[in-house]
Amino acid sequence: xxxxxxxxxxxxxxxxxxxxxxxxxxxxxxxxxxxxxxxxxxxxxxxxxxxxxxxxxxxxxxxxxxxxxxxxxxxxxxxxxxxxxxxxxxxxxxxxxxxxxxxxxxxxxxxxxxxxxxxxxxxxxxxxxxxxxxxxxxxxxxxxxxxxxxxxxxxxxxxxxxxxxxxxxxxxxxxxxxxxxxxxxxxxxxxxxxxxxxxxxxxxxxxxxx
Length: 210
Fold this sequence. Notes:
- It is a single chain.
- By secondary structure, the chain is mainly alpha-helical.
- The chain has one domain (4-209).
- Helices cover 78% and strands 0% of the residues.
- Helix 5 (69-93) packs antiparallel against helix 9.
- Mean pLDDT is 81; it is low at 1-16.
């Protein structure tokens, strides 16, 4: 089984060919009058089948209007959680016809099997990790349906993890403005991984020391 770090996919690994074009297209939506709607749709789609994460558009919108950073974070969170539920039902009812096609098209076959193993003992924690970190969240939502993880666990972990991720971006941009964009672009994946590791260490400490 691959380690957690092996599964983490950076936002800027989408650097070549078709995915690069999709990335640039998503960024162009920041200048459209329907940008907020586009952010919701992107957040929804990314949780179930689309390869480009909503952080890309959320950051662009928040940098242009820092005072609306938390509004954009809310849109991303709601869209992502609902998209995760959609991904769950794809895995539960449509895996053979749709879910398997998505996993194969994105090249996540090995990760999908690894997630199935994780769900045997650590379903909530696994989903929470994927919801907050750059691990491909769609793999976990589809797998949750396929491996019949409780829907309530998926929703609860998604609400916590996705909200924490998107509101962290909003918080940074709200207080530091456009100058923080380059820092987020460069170090966001590392920051989320470190922050989540600290959260896990905190839970362990509480469990064994209190």
